[in-house]
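Lab manual, section 2.4: Encoding a predicted structure.

Procedure: take the sequence of the chain (494 residues), apply the prediction step described in section 2.3, and record the output as C-alpha cells. A sample record is shown.
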Amino acid sequence: MKRMFAFTLCTVIFLLLLSGCNSSKENNPLKTDVPTNALIEDDLDNTKKPEQLDLDKSISLFSDNVLNDLPKAISKESREKLLQELNVVFSEKNYGEEAEIQIRSAMEKAMDYYVNFQTLFAFFDVPDCATYLRNYFLNPLKTMVNNVVIDESAGEGMADDYNKILTISKSLNPDMDAAVVIHELWHMSVAAEHGIVDSKLYFQLNEGGASFSQLILSGSKFYDRIQWLQMGGVGVHNPENTEHTLWVGRFGTFQYSQYFAIWYRLFTLTDFDTMALFLKPNGAQLIRQEMVKRYGENGSRLFDLLELYAQNKHPDGNFACVVEFESLYLHLLKGRLQEVESPHEMLAFLHMYRITRLALGSEYLRSYVVETEETGSAGYNETITHPDIDYVATDKAVAEAVYNWHIINRGKLTDKQEYALAYCISAFPANQGEVEHRLTREAVQNETLLCSDFKYYYKETGENIIHFYFDTSIAYRVLRIYNYSTGECINFER
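Recorded output:
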C-alpha cells in the first residue's frame, strides 16, 4: 500500500477557500526574521507592561514541587546511543549519503524537542524519548525501509510499504522535512504487522496517528506557537444556517484535520498504549474495546459516532453527528478529572486541556461576507455557542480542579484571585462579534504551546476586574482579564 503525506499548495488553498467548508492556510514557520512582538497588531497592544507594577516581582506560575516533576530531556548518553543504533541501521542498508543526512537530522530534531511532547501529554503515559524512537523510528527503518527516495518538493513524502520504499523531502525547511520523515515512518510502523484495511476507521486512524506523531517536534520552529497547530481545518455546516460552521479540528491541511481530530479524541480519552493497539491486526476494534471498558455504552457510542462521521452516514447528517460526538467527548473528557491523583497529574491534564481549547479542539463560528462599493467583498468570523456543546462548563471544571490541587504558585493571591488565575489558564478567552473574535484569535495564535515556564504578575482594576500578565519563553506577553461578576476572561483591552 502507498500512503502519501503532503503540505498545502497555494493553488489548492485557493480552491479550498472558495469551497467554504474545508479551508487551509500556508504554513511558513521559517519567517523568524520578524520581531516576535511585531506580530501583534497595534490595536492589540498587550506587549506593554503596566507602569504601576513592580515587574521584578513577577513569579513562576506553578509551584516548584510541581515543576520539579516535569519530564526531563533525553540524556547525552541516551542520545549518543540512539545515534549509534541509527548508524548500525545505515551500515546494513544502502540509503545513500543524502538520505542518511535527512534521516539523521530528523532523529536529532526529535531528540531535541521530544520532552515538550512528553510534557504536553504526560497524563496519557507517553513513552520516554528513547523508547519512542526505537519503536517508531529505528524499528520501521530496520524492518520496513530498504530504499529511500529524496523529493525536493517541500512537505512531500510517501510510505510504500509493499516495496519498502520511503520517500522523504529535502527543502529549505529542515523542521518540515523532519515532520515528513516522522509521519511516513509511522505509516511503516503500522504496516509492519498488517498491510490491509481491517476496519471502517483504518484510513482515518492511520493518517491521524501519523499526523499526531508530528507533534514530537513541539517547540521546534515548525510547532512553537499555537498558530502552527492550525494549518488548515475541516468543518461541517449547520444545515439550518449555512453561515454557522462547526470546525472539528484545525491541525493539518485538507482532510488531515479530520483524521487528526478522530485520533486526538480517542487518544485523550484513553492513553498512548491504547492507541498503539492500532498497530496490531484489528487494532481499531481493540481501541473500541478499550473505550467500552472505560466508558461503557458512552464509549461504544462515541466510537460509533466517529465511524459515522468518517463515512458521512449519520441518519441526521454530519452536522448532527459532530454535535453529538463533541458533546459526548467533552462530557467524558471532563470526567477524566476524577483520575487526577497528584499535583503533577493535574498539571499534566492542564497542559493537554489548554492546548485542546486553544488549538486542537472544535470551534463553532459564524462566517459571513459583507460587500460594499468601497471595500468590495470582505469575509468575517465571530464565535457563537451551540446549546449542546458546553465548553464553558468544562473550562470551569478544569479551573476548579487546578484550584483545588493548588498547583499555582499563588504568592500573595487571595482564594478568589487564585481561582480567577486558574480559570484564565484553562479557558478559551470569551469574545463577541467579529472584532473581538479577530483580536482574540490573533493574540491566542502567538501563545506558546507550554505554559509551565510562564511567569505572571497582576493588578486589580476596579471592584470586579483583575488583569493577569504572563511572560513566556519566546518573548510574547500573554494577557488575561478576568471579570469576577461574570466569571469570564478575555485577552484584550475593551
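Check your result against the sample. The chain has two domains: 2-34+62-407, 35-61+409-494.
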